[in-house]
């Protein structure tokens, strides 16, 4: 629930950018959260990508400024670059690594992009 319901959202429940009534209020988002928290010591990498525009979006999505700890930003960029290379090598698909907020600022539920900010 990092910066949940703050930017890039709609209060209209019929909107594609409606964040829900509360963080993780939907069964599918609650399940992802519960699973990731239960296995956090076993997870080295969690990926969430935007296949529609061929972008591999890296954290964070709720602000354009770098994270307070620049080593996190640098690491996200390095991992993103490696993922883009691996996708190209394996599938021939050309993705571009981009910080999520540089495409569009968002906050909201897991599944709409918020996992990149919540599970960093």
User: Strand content of the residues, in percent?
Assistant: 5-15%
What are the secondary-structure elements, in order, as H or E?
A: HEHEHH
* Oligomer designation: single chain
Distance between the termini: 12 Å
Which residue ranges are poorly predicted, with pLDDT under 50 across at least 5 consecutive positions? 108-114
Tell me the number of helical segments per DSSP (H or I, 4 or more residues long): 4
Helix share bin: 25-40%
Structural class: mainly alpha
The mean pLDDT is: 77
- If strands are numbered along the chain, what order do they take across the biggest sheet? 1-2
- The backbone outline, from C-alpha atoms, is globular
Radius of gyration: 15 Å
Q: What does the main sheet amount to?
A: 2 strands, parallel
The total of beta strands comes to 2
Kindly summarize this structure in a few lines:
The chain is mainly alpha-helical and 120 residues long. The chain has 4 helices and 2 strands.
Question: Could you please describe the fold and organization of this structure?
Answer:
This protein is mostly helical and 120 residues long. It is 35% helix and 7% strand. Strands 1-2 form a two-stranded parallel sheet.
Chart the SSEs and their pairings.
Layout: H1 27-38, E1 55-58, H2 70-91, E2 96-99, H3 100-103, H4 115-118
Parallel strand pairs: 1-2
Structure characteristics:
two-stranded parallel sheet; 2 strands; 120 residues; mainly alpha; globular
């Amino acid at each position: 629930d990092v910066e949940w319901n703050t930017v890039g959202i709609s209060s209209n429940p019929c909107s594609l950018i409606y964040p829900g009534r509360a963080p993780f209020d939907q069964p599918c988002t609650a399940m992802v959260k519960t699973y990731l928290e239960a296995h956090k010591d076993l997870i080295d990498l969690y990926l969430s990508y935007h296949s529609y525009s061929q972008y591999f979006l890296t954290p964070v999505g709720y602000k354009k400024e770098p994270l307070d700890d620049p080593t996190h930003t640098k690491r996200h960029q390095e991992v993103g670059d490696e993922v883009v290379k691996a996708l190209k090598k394996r599938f021939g698909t050309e993705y571009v690594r981009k910080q999520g907020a540089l495409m569009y600022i968002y906050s909201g539920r897991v599944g709409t992009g918020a996992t990149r900010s919540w599970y960093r």
